[in-house]
Amino acid sequence: MGNESPANPFVPGRGQLPPYLAGRSVEQNALMGLLAYVNAGRGAPRDAVLSGPRGNGKTVLLRWFQKEIESDKSGAEVVAMTPDEFSSVDGLATALAPPRRFASLVRDSLSLSIGVGRLGWELGEAPGSLTALLTARCRERPLVLLLDEAHTLDPDIGRALLNASQRVASEAPFLLVLAGTPRLQAHLNTMSATFWSRATKLGIGLLDETAAAAALSRPFAALSPSVEFAESALRQVVEESQGYPYFLQLWGAALWEATWNQGATRINEAIVGDTGAAFGRERVAYYEDRREELERQNLRQLAACVADAFDGRRTLRGRELNAAIQAASEDESGDDTLQRRDSLAAVGYVWKPPEAPDLWQPGIPSLMDYIQTHAD
Ligand SMILES: Nc1ncnc2c1ncn2[C@@H]1O[C@H](COP(=O)(O)OP(=O)(O)O)[C@@H](O)[C@H]1O
Ligand SMILES: [Mg+2]
After folding, report:
1. Any idea which of 195-199, 222-226, 262-266, 280-284 has the lowest mean pLDDT?
2. What is the Å distance from ligand 2's center to 58 Cα?
3. What spacing in Å lies between the alpha carbon of 368 and ligand 1's midpoint?
4. How far apart are the CA of 38 and the centre of ligand 2, in A?
5. How many angstroms separate the CA atoms of 142 and 39, rounded?
6. Residue spans in the chain of domains classed CATH 1.10.10.10
7. Is pLDDT above 80 for 194?
């Protein structure tokens, strides 16, 4: 070694995938299964919803899926967006079916507004016009819509989209994939009583130990075959990151730097020990952000009580969690217990994977320990 170090693979550019996307084959297969319908010219039998606390890999999974779709030139088209990219149903319609390409399909039944230098749909209030437009558009060319940060979707636009998705997919090759924080379920329920229960729900949580180890060791093996990862060192990093993808990438980046700086050929416990300090500083910064967020939302004391209730356990039953929340609250009626639980879930403090039994877990590993240690 001693050469110029190659770009750190654990610090990918914006829009890039992590160096190795680990432990998501179930979710990947589910998405590919839905795509197969669309590529075969049929609507997907279900919409898909990815949900989980931040930092677990929803965005990269969507990005992976986007690349998969794009790589098949004869297959469906894909549009990847976030809700901040459109401010009305018309804006969404224009992004999904650009009038320059698709105006002729529905010219007689829908109106177009032509502004200076731009062309956009003006669908009006007529119910079903978004459905009519998208159906015609998808018959022309199959479409997959990936909508990230869907928990920030405007309820009126969301209502129109969810409704249209259902109808379009029954007539034409269309697939809708939403991703968002655990707040997404409640948010979608305000738009459609049945969308959530009908969708394919994919919980995006912590990686298991094997996947976490692969997320770290594979990139080293692939990019720097002369560097060996000592088994015990790898186990230690996996344990300290607790399978949280965001932490794994921080560890990977720091280990990569240290390995190159030292010209090491073996990542052993000594290197892991040195690197742990750098990782620890980043983790504290991250926890501080989360703590401030809880504070701003007036949830910090509640969070400390919930941490006490977990008492180091990996899971808590729903009624145990609710009891802890109610005990911590001024309101003796317990009316706002679920609301307060949702608020904690929204910031990733607690989480229950969709379709799992009623067992809650910490959303961001060791954040509870941090909140407990730094309670005043
Ligand atoms: N399956 C995975 N394997 C390896 N790294 C991952 C995986 N999923 C996510 N990451 C990394 O974890 C970090 C958080 O991922 P991101 O997709 O932004 O999470 P989210 O959208 O859920 O907040 C990123 O650095 C990403 O590259
Ligand atoms: Mg994201």
Report:
1. 222-226
2. 5
3. 21
4. 25
5. 7
6. 297-373
7. yes
The CATH 3.40.50.300 domain(s) of the chain lie at 25-203
* Mutation pick for ligand 1 pocket among 21, 60, 65 (CB with most ligand atoms within 8 Å): 60
Please report the pLDDT score of residue 48 as a whole number.
Answer: 98
Would the CB of 50 count as within 6 Å of ligand 1? no
Ligand 1, residue 204: give the atom nearest the CA.
Answer: 22
Supply the DSSP symbol for 84: G
Does any ligand 1 atom lie closer than 6 A to the CB of residue 216?
no
**Burial class of residue 331 (count of CB atoms within 10 Å of its CB; 0-12, 13-18, 19+):** exposed
Nearest C-alpha to atom 14 of ligand 1 is from which residue?
Answer: 55
Structure tokens belonging to residue 99 = 């009038």
Tell me which of 2.60.40, 2.40.50, 1.10.10, 1.10.8 is the CATH number of domain 209-293.
1.10.8
Q: Measured in angstroms, how far is the CA atom of residue 14 from the centroid of ligand 2?
A: 12
Q: What's the CATH class of domain 25-203?
A: alpha beta
Residues 6+ apart with CB under 8 A from 326: 334, 337
Helix, strand, coil percentages for the chain (3-state, nearest 5): 50, 10, 35
Under CATH, which architecture does the 297-373 domain have? Answer: Orthogonal Bundle (1.10)
Q: What is the pTM of this model?
A: 0.94
Q: Which two tokens stand for residue 216?
A: 């770290």
Tell whether ligand 1 has an atom less than 6 A from the beta carbon of residue 60.
yes
Confidence bin at 1 (pLDDT 50/70/90)? very low
Q: Is 179 exposed, middle or buried (0-12, 13-18, 19+ CB in 10 A)?
A: buried
Please tell me if the CB atom of residue 246 comes closer than 6 angstroms to any atom of ligand 1.
Answer: yes
Residue 181 CA, closest ligand 1 atom number: 22
Q: Is the CB–ligand 1 distance for residue 243 below 6 Å?
A: no
For 309-338, write each residue's pLDDT tens digit. 999 898 999 999 999 999 998 766 777 898
Cα distances (angstroms) measured from residue 315 to each of 13, 55, 125 = 35, 20, 47
Q: Is the CB of 360 under 6 A from ligand 1?
A: no
Q: According to CATH, where is 1.10.8 located in the chain? A: 209-293
The pLDDT of residue 52 is 95
